[in-house]
Amino acid sequence: MPAVDTSQTVSDVLHTASTMLSRVSASPRLDAELLLEHVTGLSRTAFRSAPERELPPKAGWAYQQLVKRRMQGEPIAYIRGQQEFWSLLFEVSPAVLIPRPETELLVERALEHIGKDATANIADLGTGSGAIALAIANERPQAQVFAVDASTPALEMATRNAARLQIANVKLLHGSWFAPLAGQRFDLIVSNPPYIASEDRDLDPGVRRFEPHMALISGRTGFESIEQIVAAAPAHLAPGGWLALEHGWKQAAAVRDLLVRAGFGRVRSHADLAGHERVTEGSI
């Protein structure tokens, strides 16, 4: 990227960056604006309302470095260190999976099963940044959410997110799946577990390169983690309790079959905004 002269306008800088990012991004202008917002502290609205504004002093070099990182395929969320999910802003890093819009469907389904003032017990398995657990806890302040992760760095990040968002009805636990929850039963268990097969050629190279493999890759088939959760969940659900799982868009039928064979009833899958069945649930 050519050196950025601080006398250049925001419009000029964004045009140059957008042109370059079009080689690697499906949304180059948005990427360029988000990175400039991060460097300058100005909002995207400010860029649009005053495109002839001069770039703030010393911002040019810093912006150039961020654009270079994006050109190398690094996700915007990791470069900025944050990602919005369910209208909440989460700290993220390569220690955790980036929260994605389609995962909001799992939060929607969870809220359907838990009344607004319910004093329910909820478990989130593989919490990562804490996005799912904290979104649910924020919407259901009378509920108690237990968020589990086997990764210490991920759990530390979830702890920081809970503190920054001032969401107190979440208990963060270290361990694999149900291990820290021995003897406990829940009204709802949710999880966005690893569900990608180790040799899946459809996995985006940028995702494989930058995001944590333990949060993405389940094993040879992609069903290993889901199978573990489904097998153990009945012993941790209260009567009438629900299990809701996010999975790959081609996996819904197989996940429904797993739930039925494990004794779950009212099994059904739900489609995301793209029309893909991404969440499957059932009750005991």
What is the fold's blueprint, element by element?
Layout: H1 10-21, H2 28-40, H3 44-49, H4 59-71, H5 76-80, E1 82-85, E2 88-91, H6 104-113, E3 121-125, H7 131-139, E4 144-149, H8 152-165, E5 170-174, E6 186-191, E7 196-197, H9 205-210, H10 213-216, E8 217-219, H11 224-232, E9 237-246, H12 252-261, E10 265-271, E11 277-283
Parallel strand pairs: 3-4, 3-6, 4-5, 6-9, 7-8
Antiparallel strand pairs: 1-2, 9-11, 10-11
Helix pairs in contact: 1-2, 2-4, 6-7
Describe this structure in words.
This protein has 284 residues and is an alpha/beta fold. The protein has helices spanning 10-21, 28-40, 44-49, 59-71, 76-80, 104-113, 131-139, 152-165, 205-210, 213-216, 224-232, 252-261, and strands spanning 82-85, 88-91, 121-125, 144-149, 170-174, 186-191, 196-197, 217-219, 237-246, 265-271, 277-283. A 7-stranded mixed sheet has the order 5-4-3-6-9-11-10, sandwiched between helices. Strands 1-2 form a two-stranded antiparallel sheet. Helix 1 packs across helix 2. The radius of gyration is 21 Å and the shape is elongated. The mean pLDDT is 93.
Biggest sheet, in brief?
7 strands, mixed
The general outline is: elongated
Oligomer: single chain
The end-to-end span amounts to 57 Å
Across the major sheet, the strand order is 5-4-3-6-9-11-10
